[in-house]
Amino acid sequence: MNRQQLLTAVVSVALLAAGLLVFSSLRPPEQSSIGAIAPGLAETPLQSTGLIRQVPDVPIGLFKYGGSTAFARLRSLHFTEEIARRHPDFLLLYTEPEPNRQPGTGSGMAMLIEGKLAIAQTSRPVRADEREAAKRRGFELGQIAVARDGVAFYVHPGLPLKQLSLKQLKAIYTGQVRNWQQLGGPALAITPFSMDTRDSGTAEFVQKAVLGGAPFAPSVRQARDTTTSIRLVSATAGAIGYASSATVLQQKTVRALALTPDANGPYLSPFTGNDQARIDREAIKSGRYPLAHQLYIVFREDGTDAQKAAIAYAKMLLTDEGQRFVEQAGLVSLH
């Protein structure tokens, strides 16, 4: 197989895989500076340029990446193709987790530490136990913030509720509230869905930000990934679930809820317009939306081409051109 054939195959596989997937001692995400590598993980701030083709020090080779489903729409756009056009010897291959794991931040981090990925896309910062696992293997981990996102909670479209407080969400997901009538809705059992916190960074974030670290109730049903969660909620009367707002964007089979950290409001949605038509970028970027957070590129600091590849990939995302792809994917630019 010649290089052009290899390039075509890799891009095709990456796009096909994307279509199938539709804290530690670090500073909190809201305090991280744009493009900064988190303290304790690397020493210097990341510098980026305006165009993807201008990114320097791009290694030659095939590099595997994977992780958070919050990046799924970004994978399914033309970002990987654009990288291939501008850096034809820099090939990226999206890689699914092993059969016993589900796609997400947790599985992506495990694969990164085990050397099965060069680049992990994550929806939370690196955890202390992951840093320790990396140290036992002889290297540190680096992370670079590349975008912002908001976690959207959504319900079956037939449910006549439009908003909830974080306290009410906690009551649902810890099993204290089991019927919508308890929250001013119809006499209908609540069926909550969640992803597995072992694999999903979004589930970890919800457990921390909404549940205050409390475990999900046994009554909470598990979905393989966010795409599956949307399908299950849309098919189950009284159901509720959550996902990256980029995943829920323009979904017509579920209805997103406005949220407030305080029962006195104001209630804010991560979307503007009807049917989740557009991301409310200002609400997420400013942090006014209560479940806004950052997304990261994580890599092994081992001095290999894999580290160079991850840093180059993050630099490409942080170019003005790359951040436009971020916005087109339903995420929020850091610029």
Automatic annotation (TrEMBL):
Q: Which CDD domains match?
A: PBP2_phosphate
Name the source's superkingdom.
Bacteria
Q: Which SUPFAM superfamilies does its entry note?
A: Periplasmic binding protein-like II (SSF53850)
Task: Identify the Gene3D superfamilies for this entry.
Answer: Periplasmic binding protein-like II (3.40.190.10)
Nucleotidyltransferase as a keyword?
no
Q: Where is the PBP domain?
A: 83-321
Q: Name one Pfam family in it.
A: PBP_like_2
**Residues that span the membrane, as ranges:** none
Q: Which keywords belong to this entry?
A: Signal
The name this protein goes by in its record = Phosphate binding protein
